[in-house]
Design goal:
- The protein is mostly helical.
- The chain is built from three helices and three strands.
- It has one domain.
- It has a three-stranded antiparallel β-sheet with strand order 1-2-3, with no helix packed on it.
Length: 123
Amino acid sequence: MNDPSATGVSYSSSVGLVLFGIAIGLRPELMLAGLWGALWALSYSDPMPLYRRVTLAFLSSVLAGYGTPAVMVLIEHANLLQSDAAQQKLQYPVAVGVGFLAHRVLGPFLLRFAQKKADEVAP
């Protein structure tokens, strides 16, 4: 049930960000950590126009918001961490890493993977 005291298009709740009454599942703190990773990666890249930098930073933060919980589930199932406290502390550096790698590594990987799947479906 929506929070009756919340007005506007977007707000944050226990399930993450809510947009037009639909819980989209993005956690703002992971998005912020992903944004810092994206800005760190953009500091190493070649000069580009401002609109492209803003777009890359926004998309990297969204990818970090969605990708970090998936990476944490993989770490949990690999039994790399034994305590929940260690997992809670590790999720922010993982979000920074996802934001850092989103433009140069994860984006091209996802595009190649999607092209390979598209070629399998329609030969």
